[in-house]
């Protein structure tokens, strides 16, 4: 007998089927990779840490540890810049901190480039 497939993460339908490397829900047409979802579940339970291993939380103040070029702009976030009131998010491309930097505006940062202040 084949191994049981997980229910659909969107509608919780139990009639999921495999289509190549993807899992497909016939009710809501949601497609996902079982491997990628397992990794995403691990990321949600793992805490976000800064460059030196300190645990980060919403509302923390962090310091940038290296000059960061801003894509699509000539601006740079300088080393030592303090960023107040961060929010932890599941951003695109490994960016897990949502913040607003004075003089630059809203942006997302990677936790590997900051240190808890």
Largest sheet: 3 strands, antiparallel
Helical segment count:
1
Q: Tell me which oligomeric state these chains represent.
A: single chain
Shape: elongated
For the biggest β-sheet, the strand order reads 1-2-3
Helix content: 10-25%
Structural class assignment: mainly beta
Distance between the termini: 55 Å
Rg computed from alpha carbons, rounded to a whole number of angstroms:
19 Å
Unreliable spans are none
- State which percent range the strand residues make up: 25-35%
What's the total count of β strands?
Answer: 11
State mean pLDDT (0 to 100 scale): 86
Helix/strand order: EEEHEEEEEEEE
What is this structure's SSE topology?
Layout: E1 17-19, E2 22-24, E3 31-32, H1 34-45, E4 62-64, E5 68-69, E6 76-77, E7 82-83, E8 87-88, E9 97-101, E10 105-109, E11 114-116
Antiparallel strand pairs: 1-2, 2-3, 4-7, 4-11, 5-6, 8-9, 9-10
